[in-house]
Amino acid sequence: MNDLFKYEFMKIARKRMSIIVVFASMFLTLLLFIMPVKNYISLERDGSQVNGVAAIQLEKEYAKELAGTLTEERVAKDIREYQALFSNRDNVIKNGNKVNLTDEIYAYYVLPHYSYLKMIDEAFVEPQITDTGLTVIRDMQLEDYAAFYIARAEKVEKYFTMDYSDWTYSNQEKDFWNTKNSHVEMPYEYGYHAGWKSLLQCLELLIVPIIAICICVAPVFAGEYQSGADSVILSTRYGKSKLIKAKISATFLFALIVFSINVLLSVGIQLATFGMDGWNLPLQILNVTVPYNLSLLEATIVCIANLYLVLIGMVAFTLFLSAKMKTSFVVLVVDILVILLPVFMGLSGTNGILNHILMLFPYMSAQPVFPADYTSYFSYPLPGLTLDIITMRIIVYAVLSVVCIPFVGRAFKRHQVQ
Amino acid sequence: MELKLNELTKQFGQKKAVDRMSITMKPGVYGMLGANGAGKTTLMRMICGVLNPTSGDIFLDGNSAENLGEDYRKLLGYLPQDFGYYPEFTAQEFMCYVAALKGIPKQEAKIRTKELLGVVSLSEVSNKKIRTFSGGMKQRLGIAQAVLNDPKILVLDEPTAGLDPKERVHFRNLIADFSKDKIIILSTHIVSDVEYIADTILIIKDGKLIINSPAENITHEMDRKVWKCVVPKEKATEISNKFCLGNLHHGDDDAVILRILSDEIPIDGAINEEPTLEDLYLYHFQSDIAKYRGIR
After folding, report:
1. What is the spatial distance between Cα B64 and Cα B141, in angstroms, rounded to a whole number?
2. A51, A40 Cβ separation under 8 angstroms
3. Are residues A213 and A353 in the same domain?
4. Distance between CA atoms of B127 and B145, rounded to whole angstroms?
5. What is the count of structural domains for chain A?
6. Cα A180 from Cα B43, distance rounded (Å)
7. C-alpha A406: how far from its chain's center?
């Protein structure tokens, strides 16, 4: 078995196509994860632009000024300070009914803390409204405290009562999300977190190595049929037994090694440049209403684990296709269609059930659920049980793997050389 | 040891590639002759368990090959017609891989690999990638892998394809040495390949076994059916078209020497010749040959 495993691994890893595809995907991963670092922009208080590593350093300094616990009093104080900027006539420009801060004041006081102020603003903004100008916190009447967490809770409640064209939340779902929200720790802790933010935004790009791995493993069985080696191997003693196990294990090991290298490259690049700081901060500082009680590190681990599951599911599915189809080209066509189907179809504006299905396809499943309100409250109501999208993905890809593997063996054993 | 095919049939759509074939094989070399599409490859695939018969069974010493599974396959050696290989593997790696598939222990596999690569004259290139091999070298590697496990049943489908005349003689000697106490089934449409080494000749036509005869008796049915005719050049074409032509040779003058296969004397003055296996083959496949001529 060990020898068979070794040779099967060699067969996959030594193929010219595998070598080219693996190196191309690694190069692409490097490129895609370096770009956010290279293109990172920050503005000095005088409005001058800084790029790359220098911008990250500047961002760290700005974030240091804001680090701490977001108590209601602290939030109220920060909103008041922001509002105070508008009370000085010298700071503002009037354009008809609109009142804007001058460029100098905006660059000096607002831009360095924009992400922070935007996060505060988000809690008070109506759902599905984007307030890039931070007008809500500019115009709001403040008591002694900001009612920031109350506003968050009210906003969450509105998610469930709003009219959506594709979905209506059931009471079961509302209860599920309210319970989940009740576990979110408050008040939030704030601090520098640019690395984790960038990483969580970029992780979906790891779908590229998943596609690359599927390309490499597509010929595992179909390649034997294509080359005519099936006659020799199926007529041997272990051709219909140990060989199948060896092929499956070698394929998974290859997939896990290649994918792990890509994960290490991507995470390594981002955390080495942005720094690890902020790993223990709550996920809510990225999206104030997100209902998952996770730190940024935990959220990243969840996303990566989710990607590993997609990988395992897709490799199992590819092996199944490979054992059933006569050529690896057909395997690849089906694979690519399945992976990219939601890209071709797009999410429906009116059909929620279709959207709930499309969200489980590999391309969508590679995307983190946390940054967007739409996906962070995406649930699958079953009789007596509601599943969040992360759990649903885990179940779907685990089931896909478990179901496909026995059929792989069956299809190869029953293959007829013709 | 006895390998028995019982009413073995394989049907592809409406076409019966192998039609109720029954034969009992004991140790010895079986030379299987037949035109392209006669059903040789299909039959061999069924014997090797890589193609299921539509009906009929294969028995080894009275036990169903299907039920024996691994115990049957461990006795098999198979060289398919289109031999699939792995271009990134060296000859040695490929042999060790097949050895692992055949359940040969690692150390033994190394020794056998070295020995067999020597036998098929591939020792010097044992560490070269198969990608760089010529057709003949790949075929020799295929032969080596087939005998790696010292199989009790060796199935060779067109084993001499791609081999030069010297390699073919070498191959024949190799099989002759190897054949003791083994069932060797060798298919070809090159008559001389089996003429010298087969103990039994099997001739297959349209999926049916039409001749199953010991090699020494095989040409008896052709006695007094092979004629040597010397005819003028202008009459040669007419006679060739009328009878089954075994051979045609231009003499020194205007005369042409024809070897005609016919139940009756073809022309006056024709002389009876000693029949060969090739005569027998041509006699039975004359309609296929006529078809081929028509196409040409």
Report:
1. 31
2. yes
3. yes
4. 16
5. 2
6. 66
7. 30
What value of ipTM does the predicted structure carry? 0.86
Residue A133, CB half-sphere, CA atoms under 13 Å: how many?
A: 8
The phi-psi region of residue A68 (left if phi > 0; otherwise alpha if psi is between -120 and 50; otherwise beta) is: left
Do residues B63 and A243 make contact, with C-beta atoms less than 8 angstroms apart?
no
In the predicted model, residues of chain A with pLDDT beneath 70 are 1, 144
* pLDDT computed for residue A174 by the predictor: 93
Q: Are residues A340 and A230 in the same domain?
A: yes
Residues A374 and A244 both lie in one domain: yes
Residue type (1 letter), B16 = K
| Amino acid B290: pLDDT | 57
The string over B185-202, giving b where at least 16 C-beta atoms fall within 10 Å of a residue's C-beta and e elsewhere, is bbbbbebebbbebbbbbb
Q: Are residues A71 and A23 in the same domain?
A: no
Amino acid identity for residue A102 in this structure? T
Residue-wise pLDDT tens digits, A252-302: 999 999 999 999 999 999 999 999 999 999 999 999 999 999 999 999 999
Terminal CA-to-CA distance of chain A, rounded, Å? Answer: 28
Indicate whether B78 pLDDT > 90: yes
The set of residues, in sequence order, having a beta carbon less than 8 Å from that of B292 and lying 6+ positions away, is none
Residues of chain B with C-beta less than 8 angstroms from the C-beta of A227 = 84-86
Does some domain include residue A331? yes
Mutate to test the interface with B, among A235, A240, A413 (most CBs of B within 10 A): A235
Q: Does B107 touch chain A (CB under 8 A)?
A: no
How distant is the Cα of A229 from the closest Cα of chain B, in angstroms?
Answer: 4
Least confident of A187-196, B120-129, B220-229: B220-229
Interface with B, mutate which of A12, A16, A221, A231 (most B CBs under 10 A): A231
Alpha-carbon span B248 to B46, nearest angstrom:
39
Residue A355 domain boundaries:
2-38+193-413
| Together in a domain, A117 and A237 | no
B 137-196 → A contacts, CB under 8 A = 145, 149
Q: What percent of chain B has pLDDT over 90?
A: 52
